[in-house]
Specification:
The protein is an alpha/beta fold. The chain contains 12 helices and 22 strands. The protein has a single domain, classed as FAD/NAD(P)-binding domain (3-Layer(bba) Sandwich), CATH 3.50.50.60. One of its GO terms (molecular function) is flavin adenine dinucleotide binding.
Length: 570
């Protein structure tokens, strides 16, 4: 039988960026907050020997253990889903700081078009621009309304950057200057400008210089070591929740962190949540933690799963189109090009996760879509993230996959290639969704989350268009051989693609088509706030973290209002 603990004001389920922001903001204002994290504690000192590609980038030291918790996957509703036995297409984090520990640090703002995508698309191109099976909808908030929260998050994490010439209006400059200009970023910018495009330095949470944020937390300057993605930063220079919002929460004296605490159920009386039930994963003991407010601040998949297992909100049904929990699952597409250079060599092994340059000319509605068979687009970037030797062995496509010629070309092109990559937007589709698997269960006896997902015609058309644009830039950069990446016919759960999963508990202005309002407060449980990329009605052509952070500050404001007045906030 679960041991019942004394009631607190707030419980957060997961302690990464969103859980840390909620905790810091509410604890600073005197609320008692408990943070439940199913993984272990981590701090900068744990990463002093972090430069081990095999341990972290291949064996996934910082990621979820799929032998205890995974998802099942299928491409279509008429197929049987099978468990993902090892991490592949995306990497779900585990432990204090979550994905905010092992991210690259690229920190964009979504475009004004994103937040009013249905209204703007129909106004400009008519209602028939995208088919009825694409469930695009406005977010219930505008860019201008969210801008102060973008600004708040950027100041908390000290973003180094310069504004996009084609992005939304800003109230302030970035807190710190852009990262270093390199031979590679300079060439990309020069080539882009010759093509009439508008390049700018990528906004980065790998800081260009030391910075103290408004809460007094110190973030150090990047060393350009190249070990960002899938690694923690031993310098405290890649901004993470562990060096910012979590210490801020702890300093208040109003925050209690409990690691190794896996929440299996939100306790719900049909109108409100009364608390959570969780398991101490080290001892097997079960606890009930009562609370006035619950914030789901874990990863996209887990936010949706917990609501489904706790029976909060109506599950989405792709046949009838009714229900909201599990709806509008979106991913991303990754078009791009590879350039091989016969004579020039590049130092691609130094770098940082967000050292790069970007163009937005093919993103959002920054170009006319009248004559193309898709909406939205993608950011096109070159990044100097710091290549690592085990997983980088590029050769031109006509090269044998083994033998003398393969070895010779592997050596020749080892530092004679560059990649231009794009993050393509993902539009929600009627048959792409999440629900509970009827067969498979996790280590705690709960159903696994089932993912039904495949690429759509929208994805494939967008992929081809943006891929060709990236190749034009690569050719202008002087590559001797340019290879345009081709789209896969069907989505596969392997190999790794991107950890930019979104949707499942989406925001909006209508309870019939959304799960949460623009404070991320649930329509069906007024004291439950679901914070994270699970709230995105679609995915944009950028990394999601900047928008996740902005929405988290908005949600924290909403939770504080709710603590004083109760009821629906909109």
């Amino acid at each position: 039988m679960a041991k019942k603990l004394p009631k607190v004001d707030v419980v957060t389920i997961g302690v990464g960026w969103t859980g840390g922001i909620i905790a810091a903001e509410l604890a600073k204002q005197g609320l008692k907050v408990v943070g439940l994290e199913r993984g272990a504690s981590r701090s900068t000192k744990d990463f002093l020997m972090v430069h081990d590609e095999y341990r972290y980038a291949i064996r996934y030291e910082l990621m979820q253990d799929t032998s205890k918790e995974t998802i099942t996957f299928r491409n279509a509703p008429n197929e049987r889903a099978l468990p993902m036995r090892q991490l592949g297409s995306f990497l779900i984090g585990e432990g204090l700081g979550g994905a905010g520990v092992h991210w690259n640090g690229q920190n964009f703002r979504f475009l004004p078009y994103d937040f009013q995508i249905r209204t703007m698309t129909e106004k400009k191109y008519g209602k028939n621009k995208i088919g009825a099976d694409y469930l695009i909808q406005d977010w219930g908030i505008t860019y201008d309304q969210l801008e102060p929260y973008f600004d708040r998050f950027e100041k908390t994490i000290g973003v180094s950057g310069e504004p996009s010439p084609l992005g939304g209006q800003r109230s302030n400059a970035y807190p710190t200057p852009p990262m270093k200009e390199t031979v590679i970023t300079k060439r990309f910018k020069e080539a882009s400008k010759k093509l009439g495009l508008h390049p700018y330095h990528m906004p980065s949470a790998n800081l260009s210089k030391a910075y103290k944020n408004p809460d007094g937390e110190q973030i150090n300057a990047c060393q350009y070591c190249g070990f960002c993605e899938r690694f923690g930063c031993e310098y405290g220079a890649k901004t993470s929740p562990n060096v910012t919002v979590i210490p801020t929460a702890e300093k208040t004296g109003n925050y209690e962190l409990r690691t190794h605490s896996n929440v299996t159920r939100i306790l719900y009386d049909g109108k409100k949540a009364t608390g959570v039930r969780y398991v101490d994963v080290l001892t097997g003991e079960e606890f009930e933690q009562p609370a006035d407010m619950i914030a789901l601040t874990s990863y996209v998949m887990n936010n949706a799963k917990l609501l489904l297992t706790s029976k909060i909100g109506k599950p989405y049904d792709p046949n009838s189109g009714t229900g909201v929990i599990g709806k509008n699952y979106c991913y991303q597409i990754l078009p791009g090009s590879v350039g091989f250079f016969e004579k020039e060599q590049f130092n691609t092994f130094m770098g940082a996760g967000a050292l790069g340059a970007t163009v937005d000319d093919f993103n959002g509605d920054n170009f006319d879509h009248s004559d193309v068979d898709f909406i939205h687009g993608g950011s096109v970037s070159i990044t100097q993230t710091g290549l690592r030797p085990i997983q980088n062995n590029p050769v031109p496509p006509d090269t044998p996959t083994w033998g003398k010629e393969f070895k010779a070309k592997s050596i020749h092109y080892y530092n004679r290639f560059l990649n231009i990559g794009a993050q393509g937007a993902s539009m929600p589709f009627r048959r792409n969704y999440m629900d509970l698997d009827p067969t498979y269960k996790d280590a705690y006896g709960e159903p696994l989350l089932r993912l039904t997902y495949d690429f759509t015609e929208q994805d494939k058309n967008l992929f081809k268009f943006v891929g060709e644009k990236s190749s034009e830039i690569m050719k202008e950069m002087g590559a001797d051989t340019v290879v345009t990446i081709k789209s896969a016919e069907k989505y596969n759960i392997v190999p790794y693609q991107t950890t930019h999963n979104t949707g499942g508990v989406i925001m909006g202005a209508d309870p019939n088509t959304s799960a949460v309002n623009n404070y991320l407060q649930m329509w069906d449980a007024e004291n439950v706030f679901v914070v994270g990329a699970s709230a995105f009605p679609h995915n944009s052509g950028y990394n999601p973290t900047g928008t996740v952070g902005a929405l988290a500050y908005r949600a924290a404001e909403g939770m504080m209002k709710y603590s004083k007045q109760g009821g629906s906030l909109v």
